[in-house]
Amino acid sequence: MAVKVYGFIGSNAVYRVLASLYEKNVDFEFITVNMVSREHKRPLFLARNPFGQVPAFEDGDLTLFESRAITKYVARKYADQGTELILKDPIQMAIQTVWMEVENQKFDRASWKLMEIAMGRVRGGPELVAEYEKKLSDVLDVYEARLKENKYLAGDGFTLADLHHQPNIYFLMSTRVKRLFESRPHVRAWVADILSRPAWLKLMAFSP
Amino acid sequence: MATPPVKVYGPPLSTAVSRVLVCLLEKDVPFQLVPVNMAKMEHKKPDYVKMQPFGQVPAFQDDDITLFESRAICRYLAEKYPNKGTAGLFGTNPLVKASIDQWLEAESQSFNPPSSVLTFQLFFAPLMKLKQDEALIKQNEAKLEKVLDVYENRLGSSRYLAGDEFTLADLSHLPNTQFLVEKTDKAELFTSRKNVGRWWSEISTRPAWKKVVEMQNA
């Protein structure tokens, strides 16, 4: 198969990439990387992702890393099939890019730390949790105002700007942090919407 | 001459503002730099927050569009003016674009966090008379070293990060690296690595970046 994804089930960044492939109805081969045996730090994998992180991605001769670069590549290459993940109109695309950066620079920072604390990967007492919940709350306040005016972050339709959020939100909704999403009506509706998309549900059922 | 439609709001010393300025200069796009008095919390006032809901710099306007997030603004400029100024900043075909996106994301996810902490701790904190956090400095220096090792390897077989041409991926690194190399004692993180040193010396002596540094020092 032309499209290959290297990673492990349970990695947010891997899920981000798989979500885009499901939205685009692109078949792929999934190759599990054995993190326990440090496969991701060995030369064969480092040749695919020099930072030694998952995922790595191949499409024919092209190798890519960084989930948000891969999703953009998938969105552009398979523009004519599945969900429109990158808007074509230049102004709409620019606005979509703004919100993709917001996810990257602001939402991911705050939500990822809270995930790591919840998973016990990072030592976090109540002060650290409060600090990052405040950061996330400030971001979600902006989202609440945005989603009051627009059904999705980039406008009327679901795009990568929303998709990039799916993995972290999916995880956090099974923790106490979910109250931050649920207490904001437009954010809550948006979360319910994006996590019930057929592509996302198919991905949740995926087993390599 | 008519007032340029492009407006950038914020001080040139801000790394994010300077990222946008260098992109405008590389693209030869005329612009107006609008000062924002951050000491007087102008960036938190309602008129400004209307443009940038997080109350940060820069904010950006062009014709009828208002944008924020420096890397989004750079992508917009590169897409809108592909043939003006430096061509190919965001690639001329999908494969090159994918490579640029990949290294832009590496800058965002791997380079920016430790280099931003170091820039703040070593340059801005003393300026603002804030106490430095030695543990944080040590931790982030170690992180940055690992990233620069990857870059050293990459730049041994590629003139620039995404390929043979200067692109947004390289440009995005200019602001933090400038401070670290010129204004702190951490220059050798970059200059002691042969390929990274070579790359830094090439990208930092581009006329557009030199102009931004002049604006910062004005």
TrEMBL record, chain A:
Domain (GST N-terminal): residue spans on this chain: 1-82
Enzyme class: transferase
InterPro entries tied to this protein: Glutathione-S-Trfase_C-like, Glutathione-S-Trfase_C_sf, Glutathione_S-Trfase, Glutathione_S-Trfase_N, GST_C, GST_Phi_C, Thioredoxin-like_sf
Gene Ontology molecular-function annotations: glutathione binding; glutathione transferase activity
One Pfam family of this chain: GST_N
Assigned GO CC terms: cytoplasm
Keyword line: Transferase
Keyword set includes Transferase: yes
Residues in GST C-terminal domain copies: 89-208
One GO-annotated biological process of the protein: glutathione metabolic process
EC annotation from Swiss-Prot or TrEMBL: 2.5.1.18
Source organism superkingdom: Eukaryota
Catalytic activities: RX + glutathione = an S-substituted glutathione + a halide anion + H(+)
Protein family according to the UniProt entry: Belongs to the GST superfamily. Phi family.
Protein name (database record): glutathione transferase
Organism: Helianthus annuus (Common sunflower)
Organism taxonomic ancestry: Eukaryota, Viridiplantae, Streptophyta, Embryophyta, Tracheophyta
Gene that this polypeptide is encoded by: ATGSTF2
TrEMBL record, chain B:
Signal peptide positions (record): none
Residue ranges annotated for the GST C-terminal domain, each copy included: 93-218
Record keyword Transferase present: yes
Alphabetical UniProt keywords: Transferase
Catalyses which reaction(s): RX + glutathione = an S-substituted glutathione + a halide anion + H(+)
Gene3D superfamilies recorded: 1.20.1050.10, Glutaredoxin (3.40.30.10)
CDD domains to which the protein is assigned, alphabetical: GST_C_Phi, GST_N_Phi
GO biological process, one term: toxin catabolic process
Any one GO molecular-function label of the UniProt entry: glutathione transferase activity
Enzyme class: transferase
EC id: 2.5.1.18
Pfam family, one: GST_N
GST N-terminal domain ranges (all copies): 4-85
Database matches in InterPro entries: Glutathione-S-Trfase_C-like, Glutathione-S-Trfase_C_sf, Glutathione_S-Trfase, Glutathione_S-Trfase_N, GST_C, GST_Phi_C, Thioredoxin-like_sf
GO cellular component: cytoplasm
Family named by the database record: Belongs to the GST superfamily. Phi family.
Protein name from the UniProt record: glutathione transferase
